[in-house]
Amino acid sequence: MMRRIVPMLFIAFSLLLPACAGPPHGSPTPVDRTLAWDTYTDPDGTGFFLYWAPEAENPRQYIDTRKIDLGRPFPEQIIVKDFMPARGSLCFKLTAYDAAGNESAWSNEDCGYFGFTGPSGLVVGP
């Protein structure tokens, strides 16, 4: 009998953004962003789905067409640009899943400017 995966995911994650001192007049410059979350210890957990939505979307729609299977990265973090099909001001949520395809509840949401430098001193955190 498989354990339910739902109660395990109160993942706290954050988009780690270095302070950005962009070029003059806000010219876009590629930058890396790291999305990190708390260690997940459920032995039935197989991997994570990363969902994304534009920050300006109201309400935000975290749907299957905006879902990326991360597998089980260790440590629990990714370089966002390596996974994202879009750039701009984005929000993220995670779920965990098991081998049977059961998916956990949502993690908290985290938003940030991704893909190019933002305003000087931009910081996103919990």
From TrEMBL:
InterPro entries recorded: Ig-like_fold
Gene3D superfamilies with a match to the protein in the record: Immunoglobulins (2.60.40.10)
Name of this chain's protein: Fibronectin type-III domain-containing protein
Organism expressing this protein natively: marine sediment metagenome
